[in-house]
Amino acid sequence: MNKPIRRYIQIYTGNGKGKTTAAIGQAIRAAGHGLRTFIVMFMKEHRYGELQSLQHLREWITVEQYGNDNFVFSKQSPGDQDRALARQALKRAREAMLSKQYDIVILDEVCVTTYFKLLDDVLPLLDEKPDEVELILTGRYCPQEWIEKADLVTEMQEIKHYYQKGVQARKGFES
Amino acid sequence: MNKPIRRYIQIYTGNGKGKTTAAIGQAIRAAGHGLRTFIVMFMKEHRYGELQSLQHLREWITVEQYGNDNFVFSKQSPGDQDRALARQALKRAREAMLSKQYDIVILDEVCVTTYFKLLDDVLPLLDEKPDEVELILTGRYCPQEWIEKADLVTEMQEIKHYYQKGVQARKGFES
Asked: CB distance from B143 to chain A under 8 Å?
């Protein structure tokens, strides 16, 4: 008899560059072994380069985007629409997680949604995770209770960032 | 007149998971904007899942592997062949960097080669970097002098790792 599959919860948090790219890279690695990944991007509407590239791997990797981070840059509080989109994204992630269609579900930037009080019920999703699904959460400001539930947590610490020298976000690198 | 392109040196180091995957994810993001990446993997001979997946993006991303890390696991000192392969990998990275064919050159696990004294001359490569090429170096034990030369450095800190609970490396996740 085959041993039942047991998968885990991974979190990539911290203020350094590399959280979303690490999650994308993990999906790419997994696809090479035939594993299927569903990626939900929270608070992102920009057409990041990876969306284009991942089209070439759409047999294994599906991406959906919900919301935007305009309210962050405009230093406003998020509105009802921001909360509704975050809620929709979480719903899609949960459906994917329970669908038996995916080996990995990535909730990109979900930690940040909690910081901005867009969502308050991510924790129950972690409890509902089926054994055979790997959950990967990314974003700054990961709440301590999620870290306690997770099996692997990496903190991306900014040691140096070119933003400090005035370099702007660049196509192909930050977007 | 177009502003000349100015690209940078990025380093992903530390003991946490996510260094190689972040570099791969960066190549994926860049490919979506038509940028070309050359990846040299040091001390790796295993057929990591990403090698298979990246075939689908071979128009933008080229990968070459040199060496293996058997000597690490067997707790032996690296031999002449290990040093020769690391040297060859560095030579290929340098050729790619100077070829004007690539926007990004990734030296995956190169930091580790220095720790094991496989190479002692990576620093001059950083000085030779043409403005229009982004160099990305990954691996634990990054020497301080490289960090000083870099423009962006993220330390992946292990907060929690499932290895600590006895989970073995898994296909699609670690390999």
From this structure: no
Partners of residue B29 in chain A, C-beta under 8 Å: 21, 24, 48-50, 53, 172-173, 175
- The per-residue pLDDT for range A22-63, each reduced to its tens digit, is 999 999 999 999 999 999 999 999 889 999 999 999 999 999
* CA distance linking residue B65 with residue B85, whole number of Å: 9
Global pTM reads 0.96
Structure tokens of A119?
């969502």
Buried/exposed A60-85: b ≥16 CB within 10 Å, e otherwise: bbbbebbbbbebeeeeeebeeebbeb
User: Chains A, B: CB contacts under 8 A, how many?
Assistant: 189
Does the structural domain A9-165 have CATH classification 3.40.50.300? yes
Separation in Å, CA B79 to CA A8, B41, B113, B155:
37, 18, 12, 29
Three-class SS of residue B59?
Answer: coil
Joined tokens for residue B39 = 């990846």
| ipTM score | 0.95
User: Computed from CA positions of residues B158, B162, B168, B169, in that sequence, does the dihedral angle turn out positive or negative?
Assistant: negative
CA-based nearest distance A80→chain B, Å: 31
